[in-house]
Amino acid sequence: MKKVIVTGGLGFIGSNLINILSKKDFFIINIDKVTYASNFKNISNNIKNYKFYKQDINNQNFIKKILNKYNPSLVFNLAAETHVDRSIDGPKQFINSNINGVFNLLEAIRKYKRKIKLIFPEQ
Question: What is the pTM of this model?
Answer without folding.
Answer: 0.90
